[in-house]
Amino acid sequence: MPRSLRPFQISQLRVIDITSGVDTMVYQSDSMLFEAPNWTPDGTALVFNGDGRLFQFDVELQHLAEVDLENLDPINNDHVISPDGRYAFVSSDDGHIYRIDLEGSESRFRVSNDHGPNFRYYLHGISPDGKTLAYTGMTISGGELQTNVYLIPANGGPDTQITNDVYPDDGPEFSHDGEWLYFNSERGSDVPGAAQLFVMRPDGSELQQLTFDERVNWFPHPDPTGRRLSYVSFPPGTLGHPADTEVIVRLRENDGTVRDLATVFGGQGTMNVASWNPDGTQLAYVAYPIVNDTSEVLS
């Protein structure tokens, strides 16, 4: 079920320059809760979901257009754009991943396989060559929910399970060269609500933990240069990645230093998927402030 805005809440699509710190609102809506922006590879537009649909926003022309999903079930905030800009890959509420031709010349194509009603696909990453998708596979067995990291060919094919454990694993994304997979996991603690960031080879080897602080860190997004990654940091003890929470959009450099880019009333939907511009100088995210009748923004 697509999310909706609370009373007096708005969705703000924002772009922050990571060098100057200038944070610009480029689009907002008081009627649609939209989420999870992806930049197109040419840097001209941002693609995001809202009301179960997919939209493309031309930043220069300030023009919003809906992408034809061919009557697909509502989609969620797990979607990526192919490196050539031709396709959007989306996660549908029916539990599957679909390829959508942004040029409109091909019919939609279901990438994922049918593993029954107790398995769902949540897409997060695409390899630099566009051949492989990284996703979170959610399974329910004996009443227990488990999430692990998987890969699947972008043109369809067999799934490859990378992690296989009881720890919640989520948000897998490829590095700029395809040599690594970044993800968040609770494997660093026995206490729920302790997600940190990790990296491993695409075959699951050479696992390393990247963050060790008291906050709950989700959705690592490596930049196109290979020098840093952005992520969403929740308050200590947060279970999962809830909406309507004050979070910090953070930047981690390869030397391990961390700095805050923005404090945001958001969480779920703010930055679930890759949102770097092509040269790695700007980051897109969504804020969800509450605005009273005098237009004062409340967080």
Automatic annotation (TrEMBL):
Pfam families: PD40. Signal peptide: none annotated. Gene3D superfamilies: TolB, C-terminal domain. InterPro entries: 6-blade_b-propeller_TolB-like, WD40. Belongs to the TolB family. PANTHER family: PROTEIN TOLB, PROTEIN TOLB HOMOLOG. This is TolB family protein. It comes from Populibacterium corticicola.
